[in-house]
Design a protein that fits this description.
The chain is an alpha/beta fold. The protein has one domain (50-320): TIM Barrel, CATH 3.20.20.140. The protein has helices spanning 5-12, 28-31, 65-78, 88-97, 115-128, 145-154, 164-167, 177-186, 207-210, 213-222, 238-247, 269-273, 294-300, 306-320; strands spanning 56-61, 102-106, 132-134, 136-137, 160-163, 190-193, 228-230, 251-254, 279-280.
C-alpha cells in the first residue's frame, strides 16, 4: 500500500503545501472524531419509497471476492463494522431489488499492477448488468497509467475512481496531471476521495497532510475541462467545498455518509443547497455500518424543492455520466 520514496515524494506534493485560506470550521480531529466508529442498530426499510423520484446510487463499491474480504477485515479493525458483507452479485441484487434504479460502481487499486485486472473485472460486471455504470481505476505514478485508463474506457467504463488516502497521493501532485488530462480528453468524470475525512491513523500517510480543498482548487484551475466529483461532500471541509462549488462549474460532490447523522457533526446544509444540481446521492454500500436506506430517508426529510430532490437522488448522476434521466 506504500509508494517508493521517490514516487511518494512526487505523489504527495509535500514541497508545495497550500495555505489553508479556505479553512473555517473546526476539523473533525479538533472535535474528537476518530475511527474506529461503532455500528448503528437502525431499522431498514424493505424498499425505496415509491413516492420518491428515481434513485441512482452514485457511490457503490464492487470488488472481486478476495479484495472485498480484505477490505472488510480492514474496516472491522480500523473503520467501522460493516453491516452488509455482500459480494458483487449480491450487492447488485440487494439494491436493485429494493428499488434503486441504477448504481455507479467504484473500485480502486491499492498498489501498482492491479488496476488492469480490476478494470477487466468491472467491465464484466457491467456487461452482465446494464443498470451498472462502472468506473475504472489506476494507481497514480505506476508505469503506463494513461494507457491503463484508455484501455478501461475502451472496455466501456464510464469514468475513474481514485482515493488519496489509500493510494497515498495529494490531488495536486505532478504524477496526477497526465491522469487528469486523459480523463478530460475522453470526457470521463473522475471520482476522487480528496477530502481529509473519514480518516484513519492506519493509513500509511496522514490524510491531513495529503488533502485540502486548496489542493483540489488547484486541480480545477489547472484542468478546467476535467469533470471532478469529490465524495462525502468534501468532509470535513464542508464550507470550503461549498465555496468551491460556487466558483467552479466542473465540480460535483456526493453525499456519501454525510447526511444521515452517523458522524456527530451538524448537517452540511450549505454544501447541499448552494448548487443542488451538483450534488449526487451516494452511500458507500455495502461498506456501511447502518441501514442501506438511512440516507435516502434523510435526504427525503430535508424538504428540498421537488426538482432539487429529483436531481440529488438520481438525475444529477445520470447527467454527469451522459445517461438518459429516468
Amino acid at each position: 500500500m506504500t509508494l517508493s520514496p521517490g514516487a511518494r515524494d512526487e505523489a504527495s506534493g509535500d514541497d508545495d503545501v497550500p495555505v489553508p485560506c479556505l479553512a473555517s470550521a473546526p476539523t473533525w480531529r479538533e472535535r474528537g472524531i476518530s475511527m474506529p466508529m461503532p455500528a448503528l442498530a437502525d431499522e431498514e426499510g424493505p424498499r425505496v419509497d415509491p413516492g420518491l423520484p428515481p434513485v441512482v446510487d452514485a457511490h457503490v463499491h464492487l470488488f472481486p471476492d478476495r479484495v472485498f474480504e480484505a477490505v472488510w477485515r480492514w474496516f472491522d479493525k480500523y473503520g467501522w463494522p460493516i453491516r452488509y458483507k455482500l459480494h458483487t452479485p449480491d450487492v447488485l441484487t440487494f439494491l436493485l431489488s429494493r428499488g434503486v434504479e441504477r448504481v455507479v460502481a467504484l473500485h480502486y487499486a491499492h498498489k501498482p499492477g492491479m488496476a488492469r485486472a480490476l478494470n477487466a473485472y468491472m467491465a464484466e460486471v457491467v456487461k452482465a448488468e446494464p443498470r451498472v455504470l462502472g468506473l475504472g481505476t489506476v494507481f497514480p505514478g505506476e508505469p503506463g497509467a494513461t494507457d491503463i485508463l484508455e484501455e478501461a474506457f475502451a472496455l466501456g467504463l464510464k469514468g475513474v475512481k481514485l482515493h488519496c488516502h489509500v493510494q497515498c497521493f495529494s490531488p495536486d501532485a505532478p504524477a496526477l496531471h497526465a491522469i487528469y488530462e486523459t480523463c478530460a480528453r475522453a470526457g470521463k468524470p473522475l471520482v476522487m476521495h480528496a477530502g481529509r475525512e473519514p480518516a484513519s491513523a492506519r493509513y500509511p500517510i496522514d490524510p491531513y497532510t495529503l488533502c485540502a480543498a486548496e489542493r483540489v482548487e488547484r486541480v480545477l484551475a489547472d484542468h478546467p475541462s476535467l469533470k471532478l466529483c469529490v465524495p462525502h461532500l468534501g468532509a470535513d471541509e464542508f464550507d470550503a467545498y461549498a465555496r468551491l462549488l460556487e466558483r467552479h462549474d466542473t465540480l460535483w460532490l456526493d453525499t456519501t455518509m454525510t447526511v444521515g447523522g452517523y458522524f456527530p457533526v451538524p448537517l452540511p446544509r450549505q454544501a447541499l443547497e448552494v448548487r443542488p444540481e451538483r450534488i449526487l446521492y451516494g452511500t458507500d454500500f455495502p461498506n456501511i455500518p447502518y441501514a442501506w436506506d438511512r440516507e435516502i430517508k434523510a435526504l427525503a426529510g430535508l424538504k428540498l424543492a421537488e426538482d432539487a430532490l429529483a436531481g440529488v437522488l438520481g438525475g444529477n448522476t445520470l447527467k454527469l455520466y451522459g445517461e438518459d434521466v429516468c
